[in-house]
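Hey, sorry to bother you again with one of my protein questions. I've been puzzling over a protein and I'd love to understand its fold better. Take your time with it, there's no hurry, and the full record follows here:
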Amino acid sequence: MKQDYYELLGIDKSANEDDIKRAYRVMVKKYHPDNNLGDKQAEEKMKSINEAYGVLKDPQKRAQYDQFGHAADGGGFGGFDFGGGFGGFGGFDFSDILNELEGFGLGGRGRRRRAASGKDIEETVQIDFEDAIFGIEREIEISVRETCDTCNGSGAAPGTTPISCQVCNGTGQINRAMQTQLGIMQMQSPCNVCHGKGKVIKDPCPTCRTVGKVTRRKKIAVNIPKGIDHGEAIRYTGHGEAGDFGAPKGNLYVRISIRPHKIYSRRGMTLYMDKEISFAQAALGAEISIQTPYGDTAYNVSAGTQPDSIITLRNKGVPQLQAPQSQSNRIGDLVVTLKIAVPRSLSDTQKDLLRKFAEEDGETVENGKKGFFNKFKK
């Protein structure tokens, strides 16, 4: 029995068109006869893969196959005759395969290479913790390759223009025929005269020496939005390197590094901090002042508050990171853990008061014996 087409390509039956093309490219690289010279099994596998791809890439054939399996066309779906070159394999246009294999280095159409877009660049900016909460504008200086003003990016001296490469006829690619087990196959490689550009410069630009770009230092104002987190990046479209021959510029990515804070830690929009209070404040209750990024806030500690009690101050955390046009005013919370501070040194009066307190509670605290104060400290 013939192997299931989906299994041949290693995909699920729910695969979309892009999944099928991607799987086909992987299989071609693995089983193509040029990569498996003399391997008959690889050749047979390649035949089956091509047949599977020819069916699954066609919505109508795929629907028939999904319904009837290999019986949909007598078990063959047109079949493939690998003895007749690239003209047409049982109704399947092999030129489509060449299109799919363009990135694999195969094909015979002599396409002109597209001008490459400019490269993206990345800069890291370090800011304070509070700047990430409230936002800040910073000016940074970057090095970027921009279009040469002397030649306007052509790479040729003023008054001259690059000429079409006579070796590749301006395509940037050289074709050569190879005899394979599949017949005559056209292999493409970059032209070694124009280096794939399709143009030859006879009179180089005195400024950029045929490159078409020069490196410059420039300053850019960066608006860092409130709520941004450590490691996130801001994209500035078109502020990267210039493209080749008028192609679009790349982008600038400003990566944010936030200095740690001595009080707060952060997870998302929530801030966390510890707040020390005395034993007396915890036992009797008190009004305390808690430092927040938005100023000090008064809070009433309840009598009998236990160590490591947690309180939450609403809307005292990090604002939601949002697009410039958004009007969201959502702000995270500040989570405070109350820590009971045990004094390291006591006056005689304080010691006497604590002893009396322990005696009232039936505790003994003299000479380091286990008692209320040591138990509390532990």
Notes: Residues 74-111 have pLDDT under 50 and may be disordered.
